[in-house]
């Protein structure tokens, strides 16, 4: 059964059932889907290895659940609404029948180009309908997609392609984003100089800009589609077969390819989509995320489509052609459910209120946020000006690793509290831990957030590196999944996520690993050593602060700063650019040579009143000098 939460008491009852007997609970949810063969066992798990298997022995294809099974009832219902970057360009609407045909056709394109079950396909595309089609086409034939956000640089793209040994790259000539165009094919060309596993790339025409097509490697999307049939049987997959890889930043330099599998991911994303938003038949649902991130995978593509919803994709940005774009789009499509990030809300809140007031937002029923903690002011602005005090706000806390919502209100049912993600979804068992590894039971506690029982959509491993998976998530606290986040559980048992407690910084909702940025800056020939931390920023949430030591005093600090910024943008992507770069003569280190980031974080936050114990530092004097020169 997919939904039975009708009021707060039924949420509490459902939650209790899901904890008392998880296998019975998820087994019943799974019955609502189409399987080629039912599972032999609902769950087998061991967090020490770690190994988690849901619905073992079950056979299915997620696209049958997202497409085929809806056709008898909703062939003519809109599945995807696509709103282009330019408000004057035509909207595209694909019915479930049309989406089904296009997915099957593109699945045949993949097959015609030698892709078979288990092959990895990298997708580096703008937010166009073909992106959604590409994901589903891979899933149709059991190929593993690895979407790389189209804002990453060529070297980040190459790293990800090589890590997964992708055989094929799907891209476009370019992409529109606000007033800019991105030369995606040129970036792919540069990346592919260094990617021996890639045999072909298929290029969609979007901007019409000139590109170089390499013979024997590059093919035009439209040529390939013209040759392909629209009939394609779905590959029958094991519940635990790989569905996709999606990279996320980690505490050490290299991004982690999180692996999600077919059965549990499908069930959990669909279940949480239906229940948390309380999605009703026929509603227009808009998640503003990019499909390059987990939010787009789970809550633009898979969850909504498996639930038979109408899901909108937006190609543009909130500020183009002006700061009223989101609200203009809400009015234009009479959007009922709107899901965005706190960083967008903070940016729009700063614009003149007339940008909001110009539009009719009365279609809205539910609002959502994701990606980082929402501050009180932004929460109230969203509630008052967008929801007009009538729309429940669901603050959904989750991660690339968790696949779906973990802690979130049930819209209109869970009483909300500004800045609180509130209560766990059914099946989720959070634990608040202290630094010594003890669980802080009861309410009114604060600590590190862990999860102590498996849920169906959890990542199963890091592609090619299970040991790193174990180390990162299952070694800090015995027999628990460690999220990397800190949290507060108040007197009512409500959870509030306070932010990362590891070396990940969330800038405008994008995860960045400090080590990854440090490694890039260190590559500059004048740079000796770098330490990167996050600091609070009123629109981005957090921004990057880099402390840099050089071999020689820089001749011109400003020039060097610009060179470093360009280097970071070129190597990782513009999202990782440091907001502040402070040149320092030395970094605070312990006697064993470890950089004391805690101190650097405090200085960046301009909170130097209590730096804690600095006596263990090799040279306590450097701290004073850094404080004096702080930006
Ligand atoms: C943060 C995005 C507070 C958190 C789905 C988490 C949040 C990281 C929230 C994962 C929220 C996400 N409130 N913090 N509602 N949602 N986060 O992998 O620090 O891109 O660990 O997944 O974002 O980011 P990721």
From TrEMBL:
<keyword id="KW-0436">Ligase</keyword>
<dbReference type="Pfam" id="PF13193">
    <property type="entry name" value="AMP-binding_C"/>
</dbReference>
<dbReference type="InterPro" id="IPR042099">
    <property type="entry name" value="ANL_N_sf"/>
</dbReference>
<keyword id="KW-0067">ATP-binding</keyword>
<dbReference type="InterPro" id="IPR045851">
    <property type="entry name" value="AMP-bd_C_sf"/>
</dbReference>
<dbReference type="InterPro" id="IPR020845">
    <property type="entry name" value="AMP-binding_CS"/>
</dbReference>
<dbReference type="InterPro" id="IPR011904">
    <property type="entry name" value="Ac_CoA_lig"/>
</dbReference>
<feature type="domain" description="Acetyl-coenzyme A synthetase N-terminal">
    <location>
        <begin position="11"/>
        <end position="66"/>
    </location>
</feature>
<dbReference type="Pfam" id="PF00501">
    <property type="entry name" value="AMP-binding"/>
</dbReference>
<feature type="domain" description="AMP-dependent synthetase/ligase">
    <location>
        <begin position="69"/>
        <end position="455"/>
    </location>
</feature>
<comment type="similarity">
    <text>Belongs to the ATP-dependent AMP-binding enzyme family.</text>
</comment>
<protein>
    <recommendedName>
        <fullName>Acetate--CoA ligase</fullName>
        <ecNumber>6.2.1.1</ecNumber>
    </recommendedName>
</protein>
<dbReference type="InterPro" id="IPR000873">
    <property type="entry name" value="AMP-dep_synth/lig_dom"/>
</dbReference>
<dbReference type="InterPro" id="IPR032387">
    <property type="entry name" value="ACAS_N"/>
</dbReference>
<feature type="domain" description="AMP-binding enzyme C-terminal">
    <location>
        <begin position="516"/>
        <end position="594"/>
    </location>
</feature>
<keyword id="KW-0547">Nucleotide-binding</keyword>
<dbReference type="Pfam" id="PF16177">
    <property type="entry name" value="ACAS_N"/>
</dbReference>
<dbReference type="InterPro" id="IPR025110">
    <property type="entry name" value="AMP-bd_C"/>
</dbReference>
<keyword id="KW-0007">Acetylation</keyword>
<dbReference type="GO" id="GO:0003987">
    <property type="term" value="F:acetate-CoA ligase activity"/>
</dbReference>
């Amino acid at each position: 059964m997919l939904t039975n939460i009708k009021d707060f008491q039924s949420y509490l009852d459902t939650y209790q059932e899901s904890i008392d007997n998880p296998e019975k609970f998820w087994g019943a949810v799974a019955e609502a889907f189409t399987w080629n063969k039912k599972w032999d066992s609902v769950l087998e798990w061991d967090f020490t290895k770690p190994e988690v298997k849901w619905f073992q022995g079950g056979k299915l294809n997620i696209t049958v659940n997202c497409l085929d099974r809806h056709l008898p009832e909703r062939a003519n219902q809109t599945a995807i609404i696509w709103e282009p970057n330019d408000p004057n360009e035509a909207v595209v609407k694909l019915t479930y029948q049309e989406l089904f045909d296009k997915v099957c056709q593109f699945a045949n394109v993949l097959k015609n180009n030698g892709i078979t079950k288990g092959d990895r396909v990298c997708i580096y595309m703008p937010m166009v309908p073909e992106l959604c089609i590409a994901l589903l086409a891979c899933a149709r034939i059991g190929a593993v997609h690895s979407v790389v956000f189209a804002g990453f640089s060529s070297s980040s793209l190459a790293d990800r392609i090589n890590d997964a040994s992708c055989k094929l790259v799907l891209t476009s000539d370019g992409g529109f984003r606000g007033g800019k165009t991105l030369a995606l094919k040129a970036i792919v060309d540069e990346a592919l100089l260094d990617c021996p596993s890639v045999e072909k790339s298929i290029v969609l025409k979007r901007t019409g800009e000139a590109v170089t097509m390499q013979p024997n490697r590059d093919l035009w999307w439209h040529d390939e589609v013209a040759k392909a049939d629209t009939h394609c049987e779905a590959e029958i997959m094991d519940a635990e077969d790989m569905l996709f890889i999606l990279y996320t930043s980690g505490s050490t330099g290299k991004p982690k390819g999180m692996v999600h599998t077919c059965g549990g991911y499908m069930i959990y994303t669909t279940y949480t989509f239906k229940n948390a938003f309380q999605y009703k038949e026929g509603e227009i649902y808009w998640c503003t995320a990019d499909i390059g991130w987990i939010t787009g995978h789970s809550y633009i593509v898979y969850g909504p489509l498996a639930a038979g919803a109408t899901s909108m994709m937006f190609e543009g940005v909130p500020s183009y052609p002006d700061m009223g774009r989101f609200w203009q789009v809400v009015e234009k499509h009479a959007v009922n459910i709107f899901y965005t990030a706190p960083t967008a809300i903070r940016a729009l809140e700063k614009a003149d209120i007339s940008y909001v007031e110009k539009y009719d937002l009365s279609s809205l029923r539910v609002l959502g946020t994701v990606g980082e903690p929402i501050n009180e002011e932004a929460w109230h602005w969203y509630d008052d000006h967008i929801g007009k005090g009538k729309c429940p706000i669901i603050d959904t806390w989750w991660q690339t690793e968790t696949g779906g919502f973990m802690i979130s209100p049930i819209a209109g049912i869970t009483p909300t509290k500004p800045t609180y993600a509130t209560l766990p979804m059914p099946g989720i068992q959070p634990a608040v831990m202290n630094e010594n590894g003890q669980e802080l039971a009861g309410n009114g506690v604060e600590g590190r957030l862990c999860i102590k029982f498996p849920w169906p959509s959890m990542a199963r491993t890091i592609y090619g590196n299970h040991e790193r998976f174990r180390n990162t998530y299952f070694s800090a606290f015995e027999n628990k999944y460690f999220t990397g986040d800190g949290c507060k559980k108040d007197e009512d048992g409500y959870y509030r996520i306070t932010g990362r407690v590891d070396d990940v910084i969330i800038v405008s909702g994008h995860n960045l690993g400090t080590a990854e940025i440090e490694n890039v800056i260190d590559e500059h020939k004048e740079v000796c050593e770098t330490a990167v931390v996050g600091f609070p920023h009123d629109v981005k949430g957090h921004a990057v602060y880099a402390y840099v030591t050089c071999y020689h005093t820089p001749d011109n600090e400003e020039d060097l700063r610009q060179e470093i910024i360009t280097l970071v943008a070129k190597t990782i992507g513009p999202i990782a650019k440091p907001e502040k770069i402070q040149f320092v003569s030395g970094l605070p280190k312990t006697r064993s040579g470890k950089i004391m980031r805690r101190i650097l974080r405090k200085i960046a936050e301009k909170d130097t009143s209590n730096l804690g114990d600095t006596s263990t530092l090799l040279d306590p004097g450097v701290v004073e000098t850094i404080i004096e020169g702080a930006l």
